[in-house]
Amino acid sequence: MRQADFAQGARIGVLTTQPLGRVLDYRAPEGGCCLGDYVEAPLGPRRVLGVVWGPGDGAFDAARLRPVGRVLDLPPMRDELRAFLIRAGDYTLTSLPAMLRLATRAPGLGDPPASRRVYRRGHGEPERMTDARARVMDALDAMGGGALTLAELTQAAGVSASVVKGLVAQGIVAEVEAPRDTPFPHLDPALPGHALSAGQQEAATRLRAAVATGAYGTTLLKGVTGSGKTEVYLEAVAECLSHGRQALVLLPEIALTAGFLTRVQERFGARPGEWHSGVTQTERRRVWRMVAEGGAQLVVGARSALFLPFRDLGLIVVDEEHDTSYKQEDGVLYNARDMGVLRASLCSAQVVLASATPSLETWANAEAGKYARLDLPARFGAAELPEMQAIDMRAEDLPSNRWISPTLQGAVAARIGAGEQALLFLNRRGYAPVTICRACGHQIGCDDCDARMVEHRFLGRLVCHQCGAEKPIPQACPSCKAEGKLAPVGPGVERLAEEVAEHFPDARVAVLSSDLFASARALKAQIEAIAEGGADIIIGTQLVAKGHNFPLLTLVGVIDADLGLQGSDLRAAERTFQLMRQVAGRAGRAERPGMALLQTFQPEHPVIRAILSGDEEGFWRAEAAEREAAGMPPYGKLAGIILSAPEAQPVFDHAAELARRDGPLRAVGAVVFGPAPAPIARIRGRHRVRLLVKAPKGAALQPALSRWVRQLRQPPNLRLVIDIDPQSF
Ligand code: ADP
Ligand code: ZN
């Protein structure tokens, strides 16, 4: 029996997941309870999940205190996670209940661990294979020997229960009673990995030594694409596991996890726990419990895995640390990279930030000596970095509504003629970004957003990329009613596919764009098919820039290298530099040398020149100097405040009044800019206005921000969101 911190009937404070914003007082239940215990707390007529947070602040009349319901059969929340939720909440200006919700995102956490009926692959193939049956088999095969409940299986396969039962009757699918929440298979850190190159070995040794200290530290692992960063950080994982501690690997994209799981299996003999939006509800519950109990040594996941209740977390790897998808853009606005560093510092863990093109923030932290830095300057084995060249579009003879220059066409023809693959990169989903009326000049926009509708020809519809609204492509102009005058303007990947088909009628073309895949699984299958040579020409959005490995790919053609340089965003240069070098890095990952061609109208632009020259350190130094001179991150603090409401004027007035009452900000040396229309001035019918607050590095910005916004009463339909370290500014 464990010693209770609070005897039965004692006053306790319980943090619940309900948005009341504070810790509520209760009485300890029968048998008492401990700090960190997960409990069921009665709240009005309901019972909600809570955590015993402290002795209670006495604000409640003792006579009215209710006892909490039962203590859930879960390991109590550790001090480290509690401290993390508090600190991360303070940093992002998020209430504690909202932080607790992030940390308990698994259904039925308190349910007893009874057994349940599940389905897994049996033996043989069905006598008669139908589409529905094939989908059931696919869904089960995707589980790699794992099992699904009937509800999960029918949903994943899109079939009725009778299809599954039919397969059970034939023995093709097995129906079994399985205990819930079983531990994950053991990962063996002593299994030998690949023989490492000298450079890899040195980096691995340093990372192992860092992990072996058992103390906090952060290392930037900077290696060109294909240098074997994954091999190297798996050594750090091995070291961590060998000390009996847990490890977490964060990846920016679910589609990448499949390949990573295979590599973990090869390296450690079993697959790790997974935590991302594609994981079933029952599996989430299992992962959560096993992470808490120590039955999961390694978790690979998306950013929210940071909030799992690790028993003893010793290592966090953030792969592709520069990736913008680490920044959560709705709900709690946090950057998983930065929060990972915070959590590691609270639980004496090491952090490895891996990237070929680090964020300026991470680069600067390494320069300043706050992070260690390890470099892998060469590709593994015989692979060479691709040569990069500009195609000066001013000198190319290209008809309007065509985007592949003769020079690029020639290069593609040569590569596919040699049995290799070419990738054409265009960061624009759909067919055409604009649909314009040739009679009156009207551009078709979204009814609810300040955005143009994008034609998606495969869907036969216009789609708003802000709110997802769709409408059919009209015959007549909605403004002047002229018939047959609407025309697509500008290229998207679907339109590029048309042009490719004209130039290369015999080539096999694959379009990789997130909207063209119904599921992560379908996308993964396509990526595998391409890797095995199932396409000659790949057309892709930024989806392909991330760590996929296409051994036959030797040419990357960037359709519009200038695209990201437009607009006023201070991060545009950094983003373009990272994206272009990542995309180029897809070429020549195996024995055959690669080449990247960038179509540009401004080859003398400093960012384009930096991309081509490969002088990364020079680029970062110049960027850093500019940011420092402007007092911008990472040399100063920045917060974006987005105010929105159905009517434009009240939002603007509220923002203007806040800007006037800047006393609390000036008190900490901060200044406010704006109000100005937000980069997208209307989304889903709400008008949006932005204020930017800039403060010196050492300023206590967050408390000043809360004092500042609390000065004004918020009208009920006005929403105010504070974004610390905004992605664009
Ligand atoms: P990065 O993450 O830096 O892009 P990867 O770790 O994915 O690089 O390695 C690139 C390719 O080289 C992968 O196919 C990987 O299996 C292979 N590779 C890297 N290091 C080794 C090694 N030491 N032995 C064998 N293959 C390796
Ligand atoms: Zn819209």
Automatic annotation (TrEMBL):
Required co-factor?
Zn(2+)
Record keywords, A-Z: ATP-binding, DNA replication, DNA-binding, Helicase, Hydrolase, Isomerase, Metal-binding, Nucleotide-binding, Primosome, Zinc
Q: Name one GO molecular function term.
A: 3'-5' DNA helicase activity
Domain Helicase ATP-binding: from-to ranges? 210-376
Q: What class of enzyme is it?
A: isomerase
Keyword DNA-binding carried by entry? yes
| Known partners and oligomeric status | Component of the replication restart primosome.
**Protein name, entry field:** Replication restart protein PriA
Organism of origin is Allgaiera indica
Q: What is the lineage of its organism?
A: Bacteria, Pseudomonadati, Pseudomonadota, Alphaproteobacteria, Rhodobacterales
